[in-house]
Amino acid sequence: MPMDMSLIPSKLEDASLAERLRRRILVDNNPVSCVLHPTGSVLVRDWLGEGAEDQELLRVQKILEAVLQADTEGDYAACLARATGGFNSWSARLQALGERLDGAPPTEADELRRIFREVSRECNDMKRELLGAAP
Fold this sequence. Notes:
Layout: H1 17-21, E1 26-28, H2 31-34, E2 41-43, H3 55-69, H4 76-83, H5 87-101, H6 109-131
């Protein structure tokens, strides 16, 4: 069950939604999940638990530590953008994907399947571009 991020306590209780979002970072392995917060998301590689060491945890830890140590006055999203190579392209592609997903869903099953395949290909391409990995 997804966590309601608005329930996380913040010193900025009276702040606007945009101000509160700058203080939050979403970590996920699915670009579609990141659509809701394109400027404050860290995409991680899929981990299948096949005996390999999980290097993603260390990578994400370094990113988050850099964000927390930076003098950003709580603007974690801006620091995240500076700490992540290719972040501007990633964020722009997420925003475009979000706009596409905001449209009315098709009523025909074949059209829905076609769109699902296109979105899946786009997500895999985004992962390859940002991480050099895709399922």
